[in-house]
Amino acid sequence: MSPYVLYSDGKGNIFEDKTLYAIGRSGWDAMPVPEEDWIELPDGGSLYELPDRKALGMDVKTGDLRMCEKGWAVAAFIPPAHTGLYLAAFEAIPDAQTLPLFCYTAAGWHNNKFYVPAVRIERDIRQECKGYDKQKINEGVEHMLAAYPHNRLVEHLANNCALTYDCPAARNYFMGRWECPVPVSPACNANCIGCISFQPQEETIGSPQDRLTFKPTAEEIVEFTVPHLESAPYPLISFGQGCEGEPLLMWETIRDSIIEIRKHTNKGSININTNGSKPDAVKELVKAGLNSIRVSLNSVRPEIYTKYYLPNNYTFEDIRESAKIVRQAGGWASINYFTFPGMTDSIAEYEALRDFIKYTDISMIQWRNFNIDPDWYLGKLGVSDTGECMGLRQMMELIHEEFPNLKFGYYNPPAERMKNFDVDFAH
Ligand code: SF4
């Protein structure tokens, strides 16, 4: 089974080219996709036409790789809980505009269906699009705004996150379930090339969210998080969201919030999504009662990490320490691994990942699709050759074999799953 190449007419209409089989991309290289890697585009996935880019495919008769001249290339945005194994293969014309901050997975057409090379990496259903109920969300927003009329954070989560950005975590909060987002920091100590809450003026792409503009107080945080932990199924709260800078810059407020929250309830889990830049602050948060940490990174190779994060006054070693500190205290530590075919599955990255796991003893890898224009990313890092690669599926298998207790997923687990990862709460 080999799907056909997809192309668009530039007006949003997509067609298949039956003279070309769809192929994939890893780093700068176009290549065939193993048959077993294709799955139907999961529910909630969408397709993008890529302006000023021509699709590459394999000629169905000759087997040669060539360009589709019929229109613009097409890529897939695969829904959360799935990890893309190959990027879309395309050739950009000179001076093509940088693509916005989404993931661009390969896509093809077969038997009247769209196909993508991907794996379902996470059983948790918390961001399944069919699980969201607009009416319940609106009722929840109304109820919470009335319940907390002076709470700037609830107002932000309602009007910006849930109703404007369509944030899956904020919508779950207003449906009274699972993970509740707690953004706290207007500032950051990194300058990530693909930052989703701030993009420099000179860049042609925008950031999907605007950064928080105020510093919430511990009182504001405690007011709405305690009832959530008390009442929601599989409850957890997470500091560090896409609509803010770095939460560790607000560690004192987070510490005071955790201490106050735990005076009222022992239910659920308290997590922080962070760049991990301040291990001393993490130590204080663990003392206060932090249960889990998720450290975001594009690579576990310090040089690749540093070229992307452009950190202010911290180093790669600091982020390693932050993960290790939580593990040493018996907490749960995940990495939010921006997965990029050709970079993540390079032999050099694989070896560095093995060392990182051994040093930190992390609990989980969240294999999350990297939302970035592949040409722009590799160009910005100055990567002309990604080196030998093994394929993401094989890398996952090797890591799983060597570290059988290390969990794979896409989301921060609730306390119940930290105890027993195979708890079945998909209903
Ligand atoms: S750490 Fe987060 S908020 Fe800071 S620059 Fe990077 S993506 Fe943006």
Written account of the structure:
- With 427 residues, this protein is of the alpha/beta class.
- The chain folds into two domains: 4-120, no CATH class; 129-419, TIM Barrel (Alpha-Beta Barrel).
- Helices cover 30% and strands 23% of the residues.
- It contains twelve helices and 21 strands.
- The protein has helices spanning 134-147, 152-162, 168-174, 218-231, 251-264, 279-288, 302-309, 316-328, 347-360, 374-381, 392-402, 415-419, and strands at 4-8, 14-22, 24-26, 29-31, 38-40, 46-50, 53-59, 65-67, 72-77, 82-84, 87-88, 90-92, 108-110, 113-120, 179-182, 236-239, 269-274, 292-297, 332-339, 364-369, 407-409.
- Strands 1, 2, 6, 7, 8, 9 and 12 form a seven-stranded antiparallel beta sheet that branches. It has a seven-stranded parallel beta sheet with strand order 15-16-17-18-19-20-21. Strands 5, 10, 13 and 14 form a four-stranded antiparallel beta sheet that branches.
- The longest helix is centred in the first third of the chain and has 14 residues, at 134-147.
- The two termini are 33 Å apart.
- 48% of the residues are buried.
- The mean pLDDT is 96.
